[in-house]
Write a structure and sequence with these properties.
This protein has three domains: 83 residues; 123 residues, Immunoglobulin-like, CATH 2.60.40.680; 88 residues, Sandwich (Immunoglobulin-like). 36% of the residues lie in helices and 38% in strands. Strands 1, 2, 3, 4, 5, 6, 7 and 8 form an eight-stranded mixed sheet that branches. A four-stranded mixed sheet has the order 10-14-13-12, with no helix packed on it. Strand 5 and strand 6 form a beta hairpin. Helix 1 runs antiparallel to helix 3. The two termini are 65 Å apart. The N terminus is likely disordered.
């Protein structure tokens, strides 16, 4: 009986475990890779890499770099202005890369970012739009990875007492890269419907002076905002924010791509669910006869046990009756014997 119950538990667990459905993710990715540590005078290579579940016919990207510390040398892009590079690259695969060479010209923290990166299929339809960023540290001499990590950790944890921003907030969009007092150049991309952006900086010292340039109203295209922090000794630190406002067509395409991607993901998930449900139904159809047979066996076994117990009780009753009759006969003999003696 215990074996039969154990079999039923195993079968039920098998049915329940077959009901699991796994989610499907969109694997489109945009990444920028650059050295974490660089030396003045060194030439470095920055790579923009993209990958998609679908074939990519064209990659279109706008790259922003720190012109105060990096100088563009050559590569798969065209410099449109100091600090900005345009990439238009055709391909026919699910992955693509664009390499850019820079010469390091000044010490400090620096960054390279893809303000916008759009992917197109063979029909010319935009299939994805996104952004990415990477940062590194320029030193006078090359350092070991351990020394560089220690320097970055120290810089991240100890903000100077004056002459810098300790916080920078923007009411719409996202700063790329994330704010750090030692990074001075940022990019923000917003849809067409956003026509005004407020920024607010907090200085490290209450005695620092802060000065904003640029208009809160955003036009379609590129908008430059700057924040200048001046300490009590007259030293200035300038933070730049390049805001890109998409036009109606780009915004519509972006929304269409997002909607199409969401719809595609839902369709794939639904297909996976249906496939999983079909498999579950097949498994249930195979298991149900076994469960019915197991249940019938348990019922028959229980019936046999009950009948066996009844038989034992009945036989025990007969034996008790026979024993009682024997006892009565013996008592009768004893009485008769006693009478004769008298």
């Amino acid at each position: 009986m215990k074996k039969a119950i154990g079999m039923m538990i195993v079968l039920m667990l098998a049915v329940f475990s077959s009901l699991c459905v796994y989610a499907v993710d969109d694997n489109t990715q945009v990444n920028i890779v650059m050295p974490e540590s660089m030396a003045i005078g060194e030439e470095i290579t920055v790579t923009l890499s993209v990958s998609s579940p679908q074939d990519i016919a064209k990659v279109s990207a706008t790259i922003a770099y720190d012109a105060s510390r990096l100088s563009y040398v050559s590569g798969d892009g065209t410099q449109t202005e100091n600090g900005s590079i345009s990439i238009e690259k055709e391909c026919s695969a699910k992955k693509a890369e664009a390499a850019l060479k820079f010469k390091v010209i000044a010490q400090g923290n620096t960054s390279v970012s893809a303000v916008t990166c759009s992917l197109y299929d063979a029909s010319g339809t935009m299939t994805y739009i996104g952004s990415a960023a990477a940062s590194g540290v320029v030193t006078e001499q090359k350092q070991t990875e351990q020394t560089t990590a220690a320097t970055e950790k120290k810089e991240a944890g100890s903000i100077p007492e004056q002459g810098v921003l300790k916080d920078l907030k923007i009411d719409k969009g996202t700063l790329i890269p994330p704010f750090m007092y030692s990074i001075h150049d940022y990019t923000v991309t917003v849809p067409y419907e956003i026509d005004k952006i407020e920024i607010e900086g907090t200085t490290a010292s209450k005695y620092d002076n802060i000065w904003y340039t640029g208009n809160a109203d955003c036009v379609v295209g590129t908008n430059l905002r700057t924040i200048t922090v001046t300490d009590i000794n007259g030293n200035e630190t300038v933070y730049k924010i390049t805001i890109t406002r998409l036009d109606k067509e780009e915004d519509t395409q972006s929304q269409a791509v997002s909607a199409a991607t969401s719809k595609q993901t839902q369709a794939v998930s639904s297909a996976a669910d249906d496939n999983g449900n079909d498999k579950n139904d097949d498994l249930k159809n195979k298991l149900m006869p076994a469960l019915y047979i197991t249940l019938i066996v348990l019922i028959v076994a229980l019936f046999i046990v009950i009948m066996w117990i009844k038989g034992r009780i009945k036989r025990s009753g007969k034996e008790n009756d026979q024993q009682e009759k024997k006892t009565q006969k013996q008592r009768s003999k004893i009485k008769v014997s006693s009478t004769k003696k008298k």
